Amino acid sequence: MEVPNANKIPKKTPKLLRPAINYFQAKWANEDTKMIYEDCLAHALETENPLPQWYLLYDGEKIIGCAGLITNDFISRMDLYPWLCALYIEKNYRGRNYAEILMTHIKKEAKQLGFKHVYLCTNHIGYYEKHQFSYIGEGYHPWGEKSRIYTCELG
């Protein structure tokens, strides 16, 4: 098996839109939130702004993971951005550093856009620290939960 590649969903590429929407919805949405991903991904392909950007990880023609680079991940710290979000790797592909492929790719693109840091919110402890992220505090979601906030300096 070849090493999977991270690919940004290119702007103005509608043929990739439906598979990307379906994948993000399957991994991150429920019936009440499906339209969030559909609306966000569709408009991301049309905007001239550098964010949001959405990424898929492929093994050949098969999508095996995803992530996004966005301005805010439904968190109270709107002074911080961009945010790495929606990171997911298919269960049978985990443990092979494929999440690191996506994170490294996104960090590189964020740096090329002129950002000095990238942030993420999660309640996982121990995983992101292995990938150059440092805990900086807590943030609050509109639905009443809180999450740990991490940052990664892009150098």
Automatic annotation (TrEMBL):
InterPro entries cross-referenced by the UniProt entry: Acyl_CoA_acyltransferase, GNAT_dom
Residue ranges annotated for the N-acetyltransferase domain, each copy included: 7-155
Name of a matching Pfam family: Acetyltransf_1
One Gene Ontology term of the molecular function aspect: acyltransferase activity, transferring groups other than amino-acyl groups
PROSITE patterns reported for this sequence: GNAT (PS51186)
Listed name of the protein: N-acetylglutamate synthase
